[in-house]
Predict the 3D structure of the following.
Amino acid sequence: MFFLFVGISFPGFSQPALAEMRSDTALESELNSGSLNGYVSEARTGEAIWGANIILEGTTLGTSTNSAGFFTLTRIPEGSYTAVISFIGFREMRREITIVAGETLRLDAELTESGVELDDVTLVSDFFDLEQRQSVGVTTVSTQLIRDTPAVLQADVFRSIQLLPGITSASDFSSGLYIRGGTPDQTLILLDNTTVYNPTHFFGFFSTFNPDAIRDVRVFKGGFPPEYGGRIGSVVDIYNKDGNRRQRSGTASVGMLSSRASFEGPFEGGSYMFAIRRSTLEPLLWALRGSVDNIPRSFYFLDANAKINYDLGQRDRLSLSFYTGLDDVVFPASDDLLLNLFYGNITGSLTWRRILSGSTFGTLTFTGSRYFNEPRFEFGGTVFERKNTVNDFSVKADIEWTPDQNHTVKSGLWAGTLLFTLQDRFDGNLTQSPDLTSGYYTFYIQDRWRITPRWIFLGGARAAYFTSGNFFRAEPRAQLEYRPTENLRLQTAAGRYHQFKSLITNEAFSGFDVWLLTDRGVAPAYGDQFMAGAKWNPNNTWSFELEGFYRTMRQLFEFDPRIPDAAGLEYSELFRFGEGFAYGVEVLAQRNRGRLTGFLGYTWGTTRRKFPGFNDDNFFPPKFDRIHDLSLVANYRLNARWMSTVVFGYATGQTYTEPLGRTQINNPFGTEPDNPIIVGRVNASRLPAYHRLDVGFTRYGRFFNLGDSELQLQIINLYSRRNVWFYQFDFDENPVQRITVQMLPILPSVTYTVNF
């Protein structure tokens, strides 16, 4: 355990007495010092830049901007300096400033994109900015990577994230994030500080996040600081665009699966952004209906994002953010089976950001999130219906305080109410209907302490209270960084994490997903994480990472599959409880400049699970366990108008349980004999290795002089590797027949985008 003490008075020492104990030099330095603060934004749009670096040339004084683009530097000795503001992908800005003792200087900076230098065709990539990865396990994913990466039918945020080392995909048909051996529900998904409970569309084929609406994506693969909580695995923190503060602009994109449009612009005192995306697959389905079996009778999905920002003054800014998305599918799976899937999310947040002083920044956020899932199945005239909803309303207050150059203290309170409903009806009869209401209260405090110019410590704790079940949990966390040279960082982290929710998910159809909560008799899951790594940035062209991790997962709770009928059972009697662990090593090499840019990522990892009374109480690998996972992404700038992109992935085949045969047990009562299936050890067999090559070409041009355009021509699975999704077994045949269910064949994709 470790503790932070802030503002404590000790008996026997008055405040004047403590001041007398300080050296005259320290007092003189504080009296003869001033402060510097301000915002850093993009010159073209006025959007805030998260993670821009601000240093005073010739000194060790420096900092970076937070998610709102705000920065502060305190206790700067009186005098004249050159302030250098930089962010990868943008031109460096230098400003001459004068610090006056006892005063705070406001410095707002607008950075201009560096783009492409046409003379020598030098491309600056901002796939992952090294300065953004200040903490162990953190990666910032740029919208450039999301747009440029070849994707099945359309660009997707989660598909791009799956290329990172330590993050595994389940299949070509799933955008779920399996991070460092964890399931998708172990990853906290935030959109403008609001929890998103179902981030997928089209049976999980891709995520709900429209790339035209996204400003920043930051991934905490593990070891995340105390300001984040509620999950035992990882965090994906996403922010919508604020809107162009300079001029009205927009984009329109037409694709094979969906089309999308966005609009943004300024108004007096603020800006706005609106983006919409809708499926455009209906004409193709209509053409196929009648000639191809099992075509959906009805299918569409929809996303809408909106954000409004308003400046109350130089010190205050209000932001109102909104998102809604849904899927509606009517699908005849067979002559006797009709599926109707209807599910989605609605989120909203109101945020007030204020510069409280020259060294203090405050944020107050009100959030609301609703997840709904109402599948309906009709089989041979028998109807099964389910209603699963999660309503989450909260208020969050955060304070960021920089008392001096060596400390950045963050503290916050997050309180809210969860309303959970799960109703199952079979042929009109209610079989189960647990309704839970729970309040939750969390508090955190953390301090980023620069011990010396080479040693940095981030320590703190988070406390959480969940009223449903009366659970209180404490979570100590720590990170330590050593910089032996300017370009090398050695990092380590450890912490405890708790989770009060669990998701029962189906890889084939995300429309079947069910969220569950802790309650009396159902304790929250928890786990410990340990990691260490090195980050080396030898020059502006190359950067390298090596990171190892080990994590535990305890008190995992899920529905017990051995319960034949849940009717009449208490909520706590529906579950089984297990444990797990995961460990691995990740490597990332990135090239940032030149005609050729991109990265190579590799993961060696293992994850295991165990449930009492299952698999002889032994650990077994879950389906998504992959020993080796490799991703290569390369962009090559052919000229000012054309760019080519290559993505290659390789992974160890997923696990499955091999059926060994069938036996016959004669029934002494004269009824039909039983024929149970005999299987091998749980998930002891593996599918063939997965590998796929995608290529794409992008042409940059103009659309009738009305705006810039991008034409993307892509081929998914270039050499048509028919990767295995799963095996089916026909036991009516002798010998038993194994049927291979394959994933995507070779697929072309065309997308045309206009920026106006």
Q: What stands out?
A: Helices lie at 15-21, 24-31, 143-148, 157-161, 282-288. The longest strand covers residues 382-404. The chain has five helices and 52 strands.
